[in-house]
Please model this.
Amino acid sequence: MTGLVSGIPAKLVLRSDMVLPRLGIERGRNVVTRGKVRALAECMEGLGFRGSSTWLYAALLSNGAMTSRKLAAVSGRRLDEVMEDLALLRGRGLVGEDRDHDKTLWFALDPAFSWLSLLAERRWSEAVDLAPVTSLTTTSDRAPGDQADQMRRARTLAISLWRSAGQFGQHRTSTVRNTRQLEQLLVESISTAGRQIRAVSGSAHAVAVHALWPRIEERMAKGVTYRRLTVIDEILEHGLAVVRRDLEIGVDLRVAPEATLVRRGYLVDSAVLIQYHRDASGQTSGGQLTSDRHAIARFRTVFDRLFSSAEPALHLIDRCGAAANVRVDAARELTEDSVDLLRHLIDFGRFCRVAQERNWEGERERAARAELVASGLAVLTPHGHFLPNWSSWGVASEAPRPNLSEARPGLGEPPPLRRPTDDQEPPPGEDGGYVC
Model:
């Protein structure tokens, strides 16, 4: 018996014919038809998704939040099979999960942005593209039917099926133990920004850039201010051209010494705070979302103080650019490929895709890399990125470095937290280790 798409068991099709109307899948502002579900499933299968996962995705799009047990019951499948498909969908950033008392609810994330993130991930893996991420939603000059075209069609169909689950913001505090859930919290919280986003980031990346950037770009287009504190390593990892693009579109970016940024996170409108948890090696291992006003006030106070004294990123990249020009001029005796690679590494850092853009064969790229390493112009970083050897070029942040032995709370390791009473604002500079 033929199902919605090949790969879906016949029993699942029979059950879905019966249960989709019973689940309310035809109510709401968008009428869900079998044709739309079939078209979405075909697009997703063409992108490598399992046929069984496409029905689960369509059900969550149309119905909002559901438990895995309910999905298993209405689909006639085993719970472990359903959980495996949900994990795959979550891994691609299409669905999220939330605790509701004693049960876990699964729901489809806003497809307008989740599919845009997948488009960005695909595009940026092939080439450097500094254009607004929303430009990826328009048809390219490639032949219809390629993966990008299928993603755009899947995005359109998913938007037409989606009914918001309204899950975000129900809980005062939420702790997550993995970076995928942390990414979900960040994306959802940023989507609520109405005035300002404060961020403290660094070179140890908590989540993938393609997951956050569509939301940040959309919020900034609506007038939201985006202020970010980071360390010099992140600037150099991203590349001077990428950072300059961020500044040109309005990101207020400043650079502070690593020692002052003990904790990393995002504060959205003084309403929602998301902090990263880092393990002993400095890698992100999870995080916490809170709306506690004392924690938020501490974060805001310390952030604003550090931001006011930090070095504007524009000053740093101007100095880096001058140092880089000297090195490129001195590298003229190297091969043309090596100089070309060096220029791209300076401009695009870890996003450099010159080998793909120039259609270099593997040996050609390896030869260029080897020559840059031998000449001392490039290195492989501890994070696995091949970058210019900035440390040998005399580049360092001009931001004031604190005397940590005399540091106020908020610099270096935090003192024990003294919680203010409900009618008392936290003292200026008392951060309890929440941010910096």
Summary: Residues 313-330 form the longest helix (18 residues). The CA atoms of residues 353 and 389 lie 18 Å apart. The radius of gyration is 24 Å.
